[in-house]
Amino acid sequence: MAVRDIVRLGDPRLRARAAEVPEAMFGGAELRALLQDLRDTMAARDGAGLAAPQIAVPLRVVIYGFTHNPRYPNAAPIPETVLVNPCIEPLGEAREAGWEGCLSVPGLRGEVERWQRIRLHWRDPLGAAHTAEREGFHARVVQHECDHLDGVLFPDRLRDPHAFGFSEELRAAGVL
Ligand code: NI
Predict the structure, then answer these.
(1) What is the pTM assigned to this prediction?
(2) Average pLDDT of each block of 10 consecutive residues along the chain (176 residues)?
(3) Residues whose Cβ atom is located within 5 A of ion ligand 1
(4) CA of residue 9 to ligand 1 center, whole Å
(5) Which of 39, 64, 148, 169 could form a disulfide with 51 if both were Cys (CB 3.0 to 4.6 A apart)?
(6) How many angstroms does the Cα of residue 126 sit away from the middle of ligand 1?
(7) Dihedral sign, CA of 123, 103, 139, 94?
(8) C-alpha–C-alpha distance, residues 147 and 68, integer Å
(9) For every residue of 27-41, which 3-state class applies, written as one string?
(10) What count of other Cβ atoms lies within 10 Å of the Cβ of residue 113?
(11) Of the candidates 71, 94, 106, 96, the residue with the CA atom closest to the CA atom of residue 157
(12) Beta bridge partners of 130
């Protein structure tokens, strides 16, 4: 287990499309070790989620979940979930604006529109396939983390360039 360095905005590794996890890796020690590093790093930084490219591993693996998160104090708890090779399908047309942050964009928050409801397809670390519907903040976290697998970061999706700034300043201004 290890807390890994987090790659920050500006590093080209965050902008690459991550590769599918190959069949041979499911259930194996390499994937297990990667998940432990993601879990340890997310916990050490109070993250709501973390994608493998954020620790410089170019694979389609995401972890998220928390009981109480000081970075998102009003969010309802989400059980720890690991998504391998995830795929998102929007349900309906409804989109919802909300403030997001990212461990790769430290200190900043921006308002981003996301699908309100999605159907999510993924594999678990042993290789079993799952499908589930998600909505609200849970759906937002999934969309944010899965964006990392395609080299997309939340500032790319700002609803309005003015709805973006340092968390401390936004809080002082009463916006957050
Ligand atoms: Ni992020």
Answers:
(1) 0.96
(2) 94 98 98 98 94 98 92 88 98 97 98 98 98 97 98 97 97 94
(3) 102
(4) 10
(5) 148
(6) 25
(7) negative
(8) 24
(9) CCHHHHHHHHHHHHH
(10) 15
(11) 96
(12) 122
